[in-house]
Amino acid sequence: MSIGQPRLVSTPNACGPCGTSSSLAASYADCQRLAKRSARNFYYSFLVLPKPQRLSMCALYAFLRKTDDLGDSEESVESKRAKLQHWRFQFDKAMAGEIPEICWWRAFVDTVQKYQIPRAYFDHVIDGVMDDLVKTRYASFGELYQYCYKVASVVGLSCLRIWGATDEEAALPAEWCGIAFQLTNVLRDVVEDKQRDRVYLPQDELIRFGVAEEELEGPRASEAFVEMMRFQVARAEDYYARSEVLFDHLPGDAHAVLRVMRDVYHGLLGKIARDPSQVLSRRVSLSPARKIAIVARGMSSQWLTRSS
């Protein structure tokens, strides 16, 4: 799973006495520092939101980042499984009011409660990371879809709550949007994932196109690999297209943040589409200038929406 890098460990308890307004403010500040330093593609999109929602997005990211880090550590599978089980226990206790004495947790709990984000979403995220410990291959796209739902779609559904989207018809396109983003990650990270003995590309499709797993290690791409990647890109494009209707169900402030997120991830997919073979030789990314331009467009559209 690819939420963002580099890795970052939060500094425990610089928040002051538990339950005070200063401790909550410090907790949100801790989340913002983490997001700014490690969220990469996500953090750019947060900047177009009003401050309360921006901080809550950082708190949401903190939980996702920490959960992902537990699954991606260099420890044994048994150790990671035990830590994720304890992580779920900590989450359960936090939701019951026993918040761990680590700074960012207080902001996360406040965000979940303030926006009434269903706890099941976070159980799904933990389940997805747990799956990564034992499941390294996906027989079909149906299996991959379920994984993408756990680690990406539920993130989008959580964002809807923070953004104030109350229309029930927003749920399905938000799910599709998460699928599109995660499929983009899968295509970008082919080599990195294979180095960890993870192959997210469906096995039946690798066989259909005649692509051996060894090819996923790079650096050279066969014609079969390129054709297979074009097929994968087309499917991701379809999910971007399906999810476009999500804008019809969002309040004004949310339009800009979703547009920035989509433009960043869709921009990555566009670069892959122009030369699918490049994913085997380098990590595809957007330049800082391109990201700044995307954020600037988002901020401009937000200003126009508020002033109209």
Automatic annotation (TrEMBL):
Keyword entries, A-Z: Transferase
Gene3D superfamilies per UniProt: Farnesyl Diphosphate Synthase
Signal sequence interval, chain numbering: none
This protein's record includes keyword Transferase: yes
Family annotation (Pfam families): SQS_PSY (PF00494)
GO molecular function: geranylgeranyl diphosphate synthase activity; squalene synthase [NAD(P)H] activity
One GO term of the biological process aspect: carotenoid biosynthetic process
Classification via SUPFAM superfamilies: Terpenoid synthases
InterPro entries: Isoprenoid_synthase_dom_sf, Squ/phyt_synthse, Squalene/phytoene_synthase_CS, Trans_IPPS_bact-type, Trans_IPPS_HH
Keyword flag Transferase: yes
Protein name from the UniProt record: All-trans-phytoene synthase
The species this protein was found in: Kolteria novifilia
High-level lineage: Bacteria, Pseudomonadati, Planctomycetota, Planctomycetia, Kolteriales
